[in-house]
Amino acid sequence: MKFAFLLFRYFPQSGLARDALAIAERLVARGHAVELFTGGWQGRRPAAIGVTVVRRRGWSNHRRDADFARHAPSAAVGCDALVGFNRMPGLDIVRPTPPLLILAPGAEYGPSKRWPPEHFAALARLEAARGCSVWLVGGPADRAFGAAIAGQANGAARDLTGRTSLAQAVALLSLADAVVSNDSGLMHIAAALGRRQIALFGSSDPRRTPPLNPAARVLTLGLSCSPCFARDCPLGHHRCLRDLAPATVAAALAA
Ligand code: SF4
Questions:
Q1: CATH number of 2-75
Q2: How much distance in Å is there from the Cα of 101 to the middle of ligand 1?
Q3: 100-254 falls under which CATH superfamily?
Q4: Is the CB of 22 under 6 A from ligand 1?
Q5: How confident is the model over 234-252, as pLDDT tens digits?
Q6: Ligand 1, atom nearest to 241 Cα
Q7: Which of 112, 110, 172 lies closest to 141, judged by CA?
Q8: Distance 167 CA to ligand 1 centre (A)
Q9: 142-163 pLDDT per residue, tens
């Protein structure tokens, strides 16, 4: 099978690049072909692990990159949920009675991509009151958000941030009936898994980096200052995400 990765810019030190190449290396080791579509500098590592680099001038994006679009359907992540589930000793996870809502509160890019923890917590309380199991999933860098959300959710959310490998996080996402996330790597993984999902966009542009998933819905307020692409709000208020109410997201989930 051929897999294609699209990185708009390849920054070798970024967590996204590291994770993408770690996955790519394992796919190559299993006999799959992997192509990396990217602009900018790639260094030697992709070629060293057998990944074919398809160079792009400037910013690469899936809309204008017909080659990537052609490969995109084969890039969908396949995951045996039960196999993944059973490979998580130590997490003490009991498969919940559906529906399972997974919240992914992290976004490595910066605060202007992160819906406030108190909003995630309010959403968790709303969805738990409707009978959902709510899990928080994210990497080690998301532990503080997970702890803050779980603390404010008053027992409505189970915090698994920083407790899983990336592969385990993929397996957990594959179990979800719905996923709510920022514009982040886990958003794209949920899209590749075809999960029903709500993607929350603040300073970034959903026309450029949407979840490639027909079951996805993007929520963005479309403020006049948006998209600014800043990591932190240059106006100091983060209204693009702060004003996106938990009740609005809950209504989208219920629709
Ligand atoms: S300037 Fe506008 S779009 Fe950018 S982070 Fe602030 S509120 Fe969001």
A1: 3.40.50.2000
A2: 28
A3: Glycogen Phosphorylase B; (3.40.50.2000)
A4: no
A5: 999 999 999 999 999 999 9
A6: 8
A7: 110
A8: 32
A9: 999 999 999 999 999 999 999 8
Find out whether the peptide bond into 99 is cis, omega within 30 degrees of 0. Answer: yes
Single out the residue of 178, 174, 190, 195 nearest to residue 253, CA to CA.
178
Q: What is the pLDDT of residues 16-54, one digit of tens each?
A: 677 778 888 888 888 888 888 776 656 788 888 898 887
Task: Specify the higher pLDDT residue, 73 or 245.
Answer: 245
Structure tokens at 250: 């809950």
Pocket flag, ligand 1, residue 202 (CB < 6 Å): yes
Residue 68, pLDDT above cutoff 80: no
Cα-based distances in Å from 209 to 14, 187, 206: 18, 10, 5
Determine if ligand 1 sits within 6 Å of the CB of residue 238. Answer: yes
Which atom of ligand 1 lies closest to the CA of 112?
A: 5
Question: Is residue 110 lining ligand 1, measured as CB closer than 6 Å?
Answer: no
Residues forming CATH 3.40.50.2000 domain(s) in the chain: 2-75, 100-254
